[in-house]
Amino acid sequence: MLEDLGRSANRLRDQLHRLYPQMLQRCSAADEPWLWDLIDRGPPPAHAALLSEEHVQRVLKAHRIRRVTGTEVLTCLQMQALPVAPGAAEAAQAHCQLFLPCLCVLAEQLQACRQQVSALLRTLAEEPGEGESPSDVAIVRSLPGVGRKMTAWLCAEAAQPLAERDSQRLRTQSGVAPVTKHSGKRRRVVMRRGCNPRLRHALYHMARVAMQRDAHVNSV
Predict the structure, then answer these.
(1) Average pLDDT rounded to a whole number, residues 50-60
(2) Which of 66, 76, 91, 216 has its CB surrounded by the most CB atoms within 10 Å?
(3) Contact by Cβ (8 Å): 197, 183
(4) Is the pLDDT at 128 greater than 80, yes or no?
(5) Chain CA centroid to CA 161, Å
(6) Torsion 162-167-168-172 (CA) sign
(7) 62 φψ region: left (φ > 0), alpha (ψ -120 to 50), beta (else)
(8) pLDDT tens-place string over residues 89-126
(9) Which of these, 156, 157, 187, 155, lies nearest to 172 by C-alpha position?
(10) Which of 26, 30, 27, 25 is closest to 13 using CA atoms?
(11) What is the DSSP secondary-structure string of 17-57?
């Protein structure tokens, strides 16, 4: 679903880049709902330049965007559009209007999936572990810098090693454990390529953020 959203956003970005690239100055990937709302209410280039600052500020406030102001966005929108052949602007505008409903549906579905995962993790974290110890989900979520996605990936891809407290198996499946190659005269230690890419990605970001936020890990 996330890949589908990225593909549709790239198609929208391609149309804007060919015709009205100034709309990409504040959202270069064209993957944010507030930009879609502006395009829907004021399709470029003819109508986008006619939007008022009050209207733009209302859109930014509805989507809780604070990194840019209505004046900055309006300045970009009022820039002169690129000269194109007759009919090119209308064709690009029609393509944008086709992409917007797909993007909105994918964004809503992705948000619903995130809420479901968050609710499931909260439920699992409240369940007791062995004896009086906390559950595995509660332990993982207590680590510095571990959020919803990393917790879900780790618990889904390495549920058995976590339950058995098998650290060597976890290191092997995630690719952390190196591979040692022996021959008659040589001994080489190389990176493990055969592993679970999701698990490797999760542990990499967990370690990266822990070095930034955990004083104990940063001092090692």
Answers:
(1) 84
(2) 76
(3) no
(4) no
(5) 27
(6) positive
(7) alpha
(8) 778 888 888 888 899 899 999 889 888 888 888 888 88
(9) 157
(10) 30
(11) HHH-GGGGSS-TT---HHHHHHHHHS-TTTTGGG--HHHHH
Contact 60, 68 (CB under 8 A): yes
Count of beta carbons in the 10 Å neighbourhood of residue 144: 15
Residue 163: left (phi > 0), alpha (psi -120 to 50), or beta?
alpha
Of the pLDDT bands very low, low, confident and very high (cuts 50, 70, 90), residue 217 is low
The answer to whether 157 and 202 have CB atoms below 8 angstroms apart is yes
Q: SS3 for 67?
A: coil
Helices (H), the chain: 2-19, 33-41, 53-62, 70-77, 88-126, 136-141, 148-157, 159-164, 167-174, 197-213, 215-218
d(CA 108, CA 85) in angstroms, rounded, equals 36
161 token code pair: 């090693």
Return left, alpha or beta for 134; rule: phi > 0 is left, psi -120 to 50 is alpha, else beta: beta
- Tell whether the model's pLDDT for residue 194 goes beyond 80: yes
